[in-house]
Amino acid sequence: MGKWHWPSGPAWRWLPALGMALLLLGPAVHAATPLNGAWREVQAGDTPQRVLQDYRHGDLRSFDPGQLQHFPVQGLGAWVVLQAQPPGALAGHVLTVNPPPPGKVALYDAYGTAVTLALDDFTAPSHAHGRLAWSLGDDPHGAGLVLLRFEPGAGAVAPASFALLSASEFLRLDARWLVFASACFAVMLAMALMALCIAPMLRDATFAWYAGFLLCYAFIQGTRSGFLFHPLEMAWLAGLSPVATSVAIGLSMAFAALFAVRFCELRRFAPLLRAPAMALAVGMLLVTVMRACGFKPLQNIGQLLIDPLLILGSVLLGVASLVAAIRGSRHAWFFLFGWMPLLALTALWSAEISGTLAGARWLGNASLAAGALEALVLSFGLADHALSMRRTHASVQVLADHDALTNVLNRRAWREAVEETLRAHVGQPMTLLFLDLDHFKILNDHQGHAAGDRALVAVADALRHELRPLDRLGRYGGEEFVALLHGTPQEPATQVAIRLCRRVHRLEIPLDNEGGRLSVSIGLAMHHPNETMDSWIERADQAMYMAKLDGRNRVQVSGTRPKAVRSRQPLKVVE
């Protein structure tokens, strides 16, 4: 088990401040006019007058309008009667329903005429944001009474609370919520788009799964809060939001599971939990297909399965990320701190649906803030992930491009570097040196291959220190080295080659016990316009063989005839 540690860095110092800023953007507590409330289910033959009469007789069930109350929206719906305290406080006020229910809600006047509102209704001249709202010009039923009807819609129950606000207070609340929601959605969409752009650049599906989860979560919150309908006016979603939201819930959990598997490195740090996480992703995809198909029995089964899988999946991913974090996954900490708020809100949302949390009116805004906060936290984690990938890629690239023994460029990487230099500096003089160690086989035979390896390392270091940083040194194979002298004409290049010969000879690496020392023969070739790489190397190679035939430990320039060299002379340049 690896040693676990907390993530560190500048981002973690100001993430709490970001979360606090999102919460502060949320709607403030407002001063609402006190309300009394009562309700009952709609019965066949009901009229507004009959419902109000039953209310006055005390035949309706009382509830606190300031707390969440669950109204059945199956069958014929539910009647709700609200009474302002004091009774004359209706005129000039605005009645709001929050959170907005999935179906339609109608407000009746004294003549039985209904003003119907819904999240996906585009017929009304004006709409509130994040809630339903009616402007009350007078007291339609007297005694401060307001009559509402929750019409049949999607779902079994519709939790809602009510508030009676002055017009100015409502406008402040509405504008504040709009700014808050816009900021949250902007953060989520910006982080998702960033991930979608980075995914193909890094060729990493982790970013794509993350973007998919964020987009689905933003869609869920956009339909539940009505933000996609007002102010975005996506009329084409009207009537489709219940099924579309259910599908988005399934996809979001599937994307979250796929993202957690890769991002938290479950294969490495929590292998036993990787299979359940992958099974969760597949299961949520199947449930999503069931909800999206047109076959009613399968749709019903999918609807029954989606909520339990959502809760179990949230717990599973939380546990998996915690185990991976404790075992040493740095990125799992990012996932854990981003996911835990959503995990807690999922549990609270389930409790709210069951009627346990009647006072949790803040859950909708908290879900928006948690989505934005998670987007920020995980984006920091993805940035760290991208940097880790870049460092790993750079390390792998260095290993792939460099000779493992001498740490100079290998043959492939050297050719690529030279070709790139030739393309970038057309017209500049380029000189190629082909170097071959003299009598290297004698050294290996008399002192062993370990001594030969040490000699190659020493020679490579000597050559590297003699050349400039912009020159390209590589090991061509065995005891052969190649060097590109950037922007160097023939005469200065010849002087450089002479220094290399002397530098290797001064290493005083013994060949055997008879006093012989390791030396190098060098072939030199200038690059000709439109010459191929292979032809250039071949000319330098032939010049090197001519230097060996002429006595070794010397420099031979390509295209010239060698001159006689006296045997006592340790170094000779042949031109």
From TrEMBL:
Cofactor(s) recorded in Swiss-Prot or TrEMBL: Mg(2+)
SUPFAM superfamilies per UniProt: Nucleotide cyclase
Catalytic activity as recorded in UniProt: 2 GTP = 3',3'-c-di-GMP + 2 diphosphate
Molecular function as annotated in GO: diguanylate cyclase activity
GO BP annotations listed: cell adhesion involved in single-species biofilm formation; negative regulation of bacterial-type flagellum-dependent cell motility
Gene Ontology CC: one annotated term: plasma membrane
Keyword Membrane: yes
Keywords carried by this UniProt record: Membrane, Signal, Transmembrane, Transmembrane helix
Domain GGDEF: 428-560
TM spans (from-to): 177-199, 206-223, 235-260, 272-292, 304-325, 332-350, 362-383
EC number: 2.7.7.65
Residues annotated as signal peptide: 1-31
Classification via CDD domains: GGDEF
Family matches, as Pfam families: 7TMR-DISM_7TM, GGDEF
Enzyme class: transferase
NCBIfam families: GGDEF
Protein name stated in the entry: diguanylate cyclase
Species for this entry: Rhodanobacter glycinis
